[in-house]
Amino acid sequence: MRNKTSFLLAGLIFMFVLVSVRAADLKTLTETYHSDINQIQLNYTPKFEGLRENYQKDLVALRIKVQGHGDLKKTLAAKAELERWQKTKTMPVQGGDVAIPEIKELQARYVEQSSKTQQELTQELGRLSSKHMQDLTALQKKLTMDNKLDDALAMQPELDKAQAEVKNYAEQLAALKNPLAPRQKESTATDLPQSVAPINATTPQATETQNKTDFPAKPDLAKLKFGKPINLLDKGLNGWTVVEDNAGNKWSVHNGVLSNRLGGKRARNMRYTDLRTDTRIFVDFNLKTEVNVPKNGNSGIFLRGVYEIQICDSYGKPPNWQNMGALYKRLVPAVAAEKPADT
């Protein structure tokens, strides 16, 4: 399937392939885990929607009340906030000139309730990810004891990913419980489904602290100017290097197409390497690529070696943080633009 995508990010480009699952148990564990994750997120969708609906109802009630008292300033403020909310469905980082005490009180209550609900969601996801990691660890031990060393080694990437998810949920929960604490890295509510809006508001105390911080100005992306485009594959694999020297390597370039062709019984019992750019270091860039994914294929493009653009056979499925085009576990694609596999 061919999909055109464009990203504006910084760093090294990493090519990644997730080798086919070797053991039926591993496949079952992973599929069950992702299914449970999706179900938990879906269960919380009406809770967040209910909070948003209640905030809007409170704004309507406030407008009726202050207008009934003949208070022009508060009526206009309530009207402006209601229009802003209906358009964005998010809390403002700063109240602005229109934020009267009554609106600030409603916003503070909404943020408190939303944060509490988000903490509950994150705790559930964290518990599930911890159980998944324990299950994977137990399976790897069993495979090792059964002398299925290749299978045990092959599932290590999935175990590493599970460990990273456990850490990620723990960091998110800590940030939610203490928004004023310094963070090791930027973090947002990235593991929510598209229908669950992340809370991008702060408490009044947090807003005051942030306002005192000397952040750089937000860049105007419309004014960005890029240099002459380059083709990352015009010289074949020159300029690329494997990530693991001792792992299998099936990467090749033919007619400008980068492929990782795995197959055969032997291939299923091997660990294969990722591929990354070699000497070329990229700062800000606009990456455009087309991909062709086989049936049930699963791969990805890593940016900075951290953020993965998901590449997989997800045709016919709704946009999701683990489907084609997603910034894996962070951003849901705006539309499901993929085509059927092998087309």
| Low-confidence blocks of residues | 1-24, 182-213
**Structural class, judged by helices and strands?**
alpha+beta
Spatial ordering of strands, largest sheet = 3-6-2-8-9
Spatial gap, N to C terminus: 4 Å
- Considering DSSP H and I runs of 4 or more, what fraction of the residues is helical? 40-55%
Tell me the number of helical segments per DSSP (H or I, 4 or more residues long). Answer: 7
Describe this structure as you would to a colleague.
With 343 residues, the chain is α+β, with helices and mostly antiparallel strands. The chain folds into 2 domains: 5-23 and 219-312, no CATH class; 26-211, no CATH class. 43% of the residues lie in helices and 13% in strands. The protein has 7 helices and 9 strands; from the N terminus they run ββααααααβββαββββ. It has a 5-stranded antiparallel β-sheet with strand order 3-6-2-8-9, with no helix packed on it. It has a two-stranded antiparallel ribbon with strand order 1-7. A hairpin with a 2-residue loop joins strand 4 (251-254) and strand 5. Helix 1 packs antiparallel against helix 2 and helix 1 runs antiparallel to helix 3. The longest helix has 45 residues, at 24-68. It is globular, with a radius of gyration of 24 Å. Mean pLDDT is 76; it is low at 1-24 and 182-213.
Question: Briefly, what is this?
Answer:
This protein has 343 residues and is α+β, with helices and mostly antiparallel strands.
